[in-house]
Amino acid sequence: MPWNLNSDIPVFIQIVEHIKNEIVTGKYKLGERLPSVRDLAFEAGVNPNTMQRALSELENTGLVHSERTSGRFITEDEDMIKEMKTSLVNRQIEEFFKNMEKLGFTNEEILKLVKQYADK
Amino acid sequence: MPWNLNSDIPVFIQIVEHIKNEIVTGKYKLGERLPSVRDLAFEAGVNPNTMQRALSELENTGLVHSERTSGRFITEDEDMIKEMKTSLVNRQIEEFFKNMEKLGFTNEEILKLVKQYADK
DNA sequence: ATTATTGTACTAAGGACTTAATACAGTAAT
DNA sequence: ATTACTGTATTAAGTCCTTAGTACAATAAT
Asked: Which domain holds residue A83?
Protein backbone atom coordinates (compact mmCIF):
# COMPACT_ATOMS: atom_id res chain seq x y z
CA MET A 1 0.00 0.00 0.00
CA PRO A 2 1.49 3.33 -1.04
CA TRP A 3 2.07 5.98 1.60
CA ASN A 4 0.95 8.85 -0.62
CA LEU A 5 2.87 11.57 1.13
CA ASN A 6 2.47 15.11 -0.08
CA SER A 7 4.34 18.28 0.74
CA ASP A 8 1.74 20.66 2.18
CA ILE A 9 1.90 19.04 5.61
CA PRO A 10 5.09 17.93 7.38
CA VAL A 11 5.90 14.38 6.31
CA PHE A 12 6.43 13.11 9.84
CA ILE A 13 2.87 14.14 10.74
CA GLN A 14 1.46 12.33 7.71
CA ILE A 15 3.39 9.23 8.73
CA VAL A 16 1.95 9.36 12.24
CA GLU A 17 -1.56 9.52 10.78
CA HIS A 18 -0.82 6.70 8.36
CA ILE A 19 0.38 4.34 11.07
CA LYS A 20 -2.45 5.36 13.41
CA ASN A 21 -4.88 4.34 10.69
CA GLU A 22 -3.15 1.01 10.24
CA ILE A 23 -3.33 0.34 13.96
CA VAL A 24 -6.98 1.25 14.49
CA THR A 25 -8.07 -0.70 11.42
CA GLY A 26 -6.35 -3.83 12.70
CA LYS A 27 -3.59 -4.13 10.12
CA TYR A 28 -1.31 -4.42 13.10
CA LYS A 29 -2.48 -6.77 15.83
CA LEU A 30 -2.19 -6.24 19.58
CA GLY A 31 1.41 -6.52 20.72
CA GLU A 32 2.68 -7.04 17.20
CA ARG A 33 6.15 -5.87 16.33
CA LEU A 34 6.57 -3.02 13.85
CA PRO A 35 9.23 -3.18 11.14
CA SER A 36 12.45 -1.42 12.09
CA VAL A 37 12.88 2.31 11.71
CA ARG A 38 15.16 1.76 8.72
CA ASP A 39 12.79 -0.66 7.01
CA LEU A 40 9.79 1.60 7.52
CA ALA A 41 11.80 4.54 6.23
CA PHE A 42 12.71 2.63 3.10
CA GLU A 43 9.12 1.50 2.60
CA ALA A 44 7.79 5.02 2.96
CA GLY A 45 10.57 6.54 0.89
CA VAL A 46 11.78 8.95 3.57
CA ASN A 47 14.94 9.44 5.54
CA PRO A 48 15.34 7.25 8.63
CA ASN A 49 15.56 10.38 10.75
CA THR A 50 12.13 11.46 9.57
CA MET A 51 10.66 8.03 10.34
CA GLN A 52 12.33 8.04 13.73
CA ARG A 53 10.72 11.38 14.49
CA ALA A 54 7.30 10.12 13.42
CA LEU A 55 7.61 6.99 15.54
CA SER A 56 8.78 9.04 18.46
CA GLU A 57 5.66 11.18 18.15
CA LEU A 58 3.53 8.08 17.85
CA GLU A 59 5.03 6.81 21.07
CA ASN A 60 3.73 9.86 22.91
CA THR A 61 0.18 8.70 22.16
CA GLY A 62 0.83 5.39 23.93
CA LEU A 63 -0.21 3.35 20.90
CA VAL A 64 3.29 1.92 20.54
CA HIS A 65 6.27 1.47 22.81
CA SER A 66 9.87 0.71 22.04
CA GLU A 67 12.10 -1.99 23.46
CA ARG A 68 15.48 -0.35 23.27
CA THR A 69 17.17 -3.02 21.18
CA SER A 70 14.55 -5.46 19.95
CA GLY A 71 12.07 -3.20 18.21
CA ARG A 72 8.80 -1.34 18.52
CA PHE A 73 5.53 -2.96 19.51
CA ILE A 74 1.83 -2.14 19.32
CA THR A 75 0.11 -1.65 22.67
CA GLU A 76 -1.83 -4.56 24.24
CA ASP A 77 -4.45 -2.10 25.45
CA GLU A 78 -7.41 -2.78 23.17
CA ASP A 79 -9.51 -0.02 24.76
CA MET A 80 -6.85 2.55 23.98
CA ILE A 81 -6.99 1.58 20.32
CA LYS A 82 -10.77 1.79 20.27
CA GLU A 83 -10.66 5.20 21.88
CA MET A 84 -8.13 6.34 19.32
CA LYS A 85 -10.35 5.16 16.49
CA THR A 86 -13.33 7.02 17.95
CA SER A 87 -11.21 10.10 18.34
CA LEU A 88 -9.98 9.96 14.75
CA VAL A 89 -13.49 9.42 13.42
CA ASN A 90 -14.88 12.32 15.41
CA ARG A 91 -12.11 14.57 14.21
CA GLN A 92 -12.84 13.72 10.59
CA ILE A 93 -16.55 14.34 10.92
CA GLU A 94 -16.18 17.57 12.85
CA GLU A 95 -13.58 18.86 10.43
CA PHE A 96 -15.78 17.98 7.47
CA PHE A 97 -18.83 19.73 8.89
CA LYS A 98 -16.79 22.75 9.88
CA ASN A 99 -15.38 23.09 6.38
CA MET A 100 -18.76 22.61 4.75
CA GLU A 101 -20.28 25.23 7.02
CA LYS A 102 -17.56 27.63 5.94
CA LEU A 103 -18.80 27.00 2.41
CA GLY A 104 -22.25 28.08 3.52
CA PHE A 105 -24.12 24.80 3.90
CA THR A 106 -26.56 23.84 6.64
CA ASN A 107 -26.59 20.43 8.29
CA GLU A 108 -29.53 19.38 6.14
CA GLU A 109 -27.79 20.40 2.96
CA ILE A 110 -24.61 18.62 4.00
CA LEU A 111 -26.52 15.43 4.70
CA LYS A 112 -28.19 15.62 1.32
CA LEU A 113 -24.88 16.06 -0.49
CA VAL A 114 -23.35 13.16 1.41
CA LYS A 115 -26.30 10.93 0.51
CA GLN A 116 -25.90 11.76 -3.15
CA TYR A 117 -22.21 10.99 -3.03
CA ALA A 118 -22.60 7.75 -1.07
CA ASP A 119 -25.17 6.43 -3.56
CA LYS A 120 -23.17 7.32 -6.64
CA MET B 1 -14.52 36.89 11.85
CA PRO B 2 -11.28 35.35 13.06
CA TRP B 3 -8.91 33.84 10.54
CA ASN B 4 -7.98 30.89 12.76
CA LEU B 5 -4.63 30.20 11.20
CA ASN B 6 -2.64 27.25 12.46
CA SER B 7 0.90 26.16 11.83
CA ASP B 8 0.66 22.69 10.28
CA ILE B 9 -0.08 24.09 6.84
CA PRO B 10 1.66 27.10 5.26
CA VAL B 11 -0.17 30.25 6.30
CA PHE B 12 -0.38 31.65 2.78
CA ILE B 13 -2.29 28.55 1.66
CA GLN B 14 -4.73 28.85 4.55
CA ILE B 15 -5.29 32.48 3.60
CA VAL B 16 -6.06 31.53 0.01
CA GLU B 17 -8.65 29.03 1.22
CA HIS B 18 -10.14 31.56 3.63
CA ILE B 19 -10.63 34.19 0.95
CA LYS B 20 -11.90 31.64 -1.55
CA ASN B 21 -14.57 30.69 0.97
CA GLU B 22 -15.53 34.31 1.47
CA ILE B 23 -15.86 34.81 -2.27
CA VAL B 24 -17.95 31.71 -3.04
CA THR B 25 -20.25 32.37 -0.08
CA GLY B 26 -20.98 35.86 -1.33
CA LYS B 27 -19.29 37.86 1.42
CA TYR B 28 -17.60 39.68 -1.39
CA LYS B 29 -19.84 40.75 -4.25
CA LEU B 30 -19.06 40.66 -7.95
CA GLY B 31 -16.47 43.29 -8.85
CA GLU B 32 -16.10 44.40 -5.26
CA ARG B 33 -12.79 45.81 -4.12
CA LEU B 34 -10.76 43.91 -1.56
CA PRO B 35 -9.07 45.71 1.32
CA SER B 36 -5.44 46.58 0.65
CA VAL B 37 -2.65 44.07 1.14
CA ARG B 38 -1.54 45.90 4.26
CA ASP B 39 -5.04 46.07 5.75
CA LEU B 40 -5.72 42.40 5.09
CA ALA B 41 -2.35 41.50 6.58
CA PHE B 42 -3.16 43.44 9.73
CA GLU B 43 -6.61 41.89 9.94
CA ALA B 44 -5.23 38.38 9.58
CA GLY B 45 -2.29 39.03 11.85
CA VAL B 46 0.38 38.13 9.33
CA ASN B 47 3.20 39.92 7.59
CA PRO B 48 2.24 41.93 4.49
CA ASN B 49 4.63 39.80 2.46
CA THR B 50 2.72 36.67 3.42
CA MET B 51 -0.60 38.27 2.49
CA GLN B 52 0.88 39.48 -0.78
CA ARG B 53 1.94 35.94 -1.58
CA ALA B 54 -1.50 34.57 -0.78
CA LEU B 55 -3.21 37.18 -2.95
CA SER B 56 -0.77 36.52 -5.74
CA GLU B 57 -1.70 32.83 -5.59
CA LEU B 58 -5.36 33.71 -5.51
CA GLU B 59 -4.89 35.76 -8.63
CA ASN B 60 -3.71 32.68 -10.50
CA THR B 61 -7.16 31.16 -10.03
CA GLY B 62 -8.76 34.10 -11.81
CA LEU B 63 -11.10 34.85 -8.92
CA VAL B 64 -9.46 38.22 -8.34
CA HIS B 65 -7.39 40.59 -10.40
CA SER B 66 -5.28 43.56 -9.41
CA GLU B 67 -5.31 47.09 -10.74
CA ARG B 68 -1.72 48.12 -10.30
CA THR B 69 -2.40 51.17 -8.15
CA SER B 70 -6.03 51.21 -7.14
CA GLY B 71 -6.49 47.82 -5.54
CA ARG B 72 -7.68 44.25 -6.04
CA PHE B 73 -11.11 43.33 -7.28
CA ILE B 74 -13.33 40.26 -7.31
CA THR B 75 -14.07 38.85 -10.76
CA GLU B 76 -17.31 39.76 -12.52
CA ASP B 77 -17.56 36.22 -13.86
CA GLU B 78 -20.35 34.68 -11.81
CA ASP B 79 -19.98 31.28 -13.46
CA MET B 80 -16.34 31.09 -12.45
CA ILE B 81 -17.32 31.63 -8.83
CA LYS B 82 -20.01 28.96 -9.04
CA GLU B 83 -17.55 26.52 -10.55
CA MET B 84 -15.07 27.28 -7.81
CA LYS B 85 -17.71 26.60 -5.18
CA THR B 86 -18.60 23.28 -6.77
CA SER B 87 -14.93 22.40 -6.95
CA LEU B 88 -14.35 23.22 -3.28
CA VAL B 89 -17.40 21.24 -2.21
CA ASN B 90 -16.38 18.20 -4.22
CA ARG B 91 -12.89 18.34 -2.79
CA GLN B 92 -14.25 18.40 0.76
CA ILE B 93 -16.58 15.48 0.21
CA GLU B 94 -14.02 13.37 -1.61
CA GLU B 95 -11.38 14.08 1.00
CA PHE B 96 -13.81 13.19 3.79
CA PHE B 97 -14.82 9.88 2.21
CA LYS B 98 -11.21 9.01 1.44
CA ASN B 99 -10.16 9.61 5.04
CA MET B 100 -13.11 7.67 6.43
CA GLU B 101 -12.35 4.76 4.12
CA LYS B 102 -8.80 4.76 5.46
CA LEU B 103 -10.38 4.33 8.87
CA GLY B 104 -12.15 1.24 7.58
CA PHE B 105 -15.69 2.45 6.96
CA THR B 106 -17.96 1.62 4.03
CA ASN B 107 -20.15 4.19 2.30
CA GLU B 108 -23.18 2.95 4.21
CA GLU B 109 -21.41 3.27 7.53
CA ILE B 110 -20.16 6.73 6.67
CA LEU B 111 -23.66 7.86 5.75
CA LYS B 112 -25.01 6.51 9.02
CA LEU B 113 -22.38 8.34 11.07
CA VAL B 114 -23.04 11.58 9.20
CA LYS B 115 -26.78 11.25 9.84
CA GLN B 116 -26.18 10.81 13.54
CA TYR B 117 -23.93 13.85 13.64
CA ALA B 118 -26.26 16.05 11.58
CA ASP B 119 -29.21 15.28 13.86
CA LYS B 120 -27.32 15.83 17.09
C1' DA C 1 32.46 -15.30 20.30
C1' DT C 2 31.26 -12.94 16.38
C1' DT C 3 28.09 -10.58 13.50
C1' DA C 4 23.90 -8.30 12.41
C1' DT C 5 20.16 -5.59 13.99
C1' DT C 6 17.83 -2.58 17.23
C1' DG C 7 16.56 2.27 18.82
C1' DT C 8 18.77 6.44 19.52
C1' DA C 9 21.84 10.59 19.18
C1' DC C 10 24.50 14.01 16.87
C1' DT C 11 26.20 17.44 13.38
C1' DA C 12 25.88 19.62 8.94
C1' DA C 13 23.62 21.24 4.91
C1' DG C 14 19.80 22.71 2.01
C1' DG C 15 15.05 24.26 1.18
C1' DA C 16 10.56 26.37 2.24
C1' DC C 17 7.98 29.64 4.95
C1' DT C 18 7.65 33.81 7.61
C1' DT C 19 8.92 38.15 9.40
C1' DA C 20 11.16 42.58 9.06
C1' DA C 21 12.55 46.66 6.91
C1' DT C 22 12.83 49.30 2.87
C1' DA C 23 11.99 51.06 -1.54
C1' DC C 24 9.68 52.44 -5.92
C1' DA C 25 6.32 53.90 -9.59
C1' DG C 26 1.68 54.96 -10.52
C1' DT C 27 -2.87 56.50 -9.04
C1' DA C 28 -6.42 58.71 -5.98
C1' DA C 29 -7.56 62.23 -2.90
C1' DT C 30 -6.87 66.76 -1.21
C1' DA D 1 1.02 70.34 -6.72
C1' DT D 2 1.23 67.77 -2.77
C1' DT D 3 0.08 63.92 0.01
C1' DA D 4 -1.55 59.37 0.89
C1' DC D 5 -2.33 54.93 -0.77
C1' DT D 6 -1.87 51.13 -4.18
C1' DG D 7 0.56 46.72 -5.67
C1' DT D 8 5.04 45.11 -6.11
C1' DA D 9 10.07 44.06 -5.45
C1' DT D 10 14.19 43.24 -2.78
C1' DT D 11 17.40 41.72 0.90
C1' DA D 12 18.30 39.69 5.33
C1' DA D 13 17.45 36.93 9.26
C1' DG D 14 15.27 33.23 11.81
C1' DT D 15 12.62 28.91 12.23
C1' DC D 16 11.13 24.39 10.92
C1' DC D 17 11.46 20.23 8.13
C1' DT D 18 14.20 16.98 5.64
C1' DT D 19 18.15 14.62 4.08
C1' DA D 20 22.77 12.80 4.69
C1' DG D 21 26.27 10.72 7.13
C1' DT D 22 28.08 8.83 11.16
C1' DA D 23 28.22 6.79 15.61
C1' DC D 24 27.11 4.09 19.91
C1' DA D 25 25.33 0.68 23.34
C1' DA D 26 22.42 -3.24 23.93
C1' DT D 27 20.24 -7.25 22.21
C1' DA D 28 19.32 -11.06 18.78
C1' DA D 29 21.01 -14.33 15.67
C1' DT D 30 24.60 -17.24 14.06
From this structure: 79-118
Reduced DSSP (H G I as helix, E B as strand, rest coil) percent helix, strand, coil of chain A, to 5: 60, 10, 30
The pLDDT profile of chain A, 120 residues, written as one tens digit per residue, is 668 898 889 999 999 999 999 999 999 999 999 999 999 999 999 999 999 999 999 999 999 999 988 999 999 999 999 999 999 999 999 999 999 999 999 999 999 999 999 987
Q: Which of B103, B107, B117 sits opposite A24 (nearest CB)?
A: B103
d(CA B63, CA A37): 45
Which residue has the least CA–C1' distance to nucleotide D17?
A10
- Asked if B5 has any chain A CB less than 8 Å from its own CB, the reply is no
Pair B17, B69 in one domain = yes
- With an 8 Å Cβ cutoff, is B112 touching chain A? no
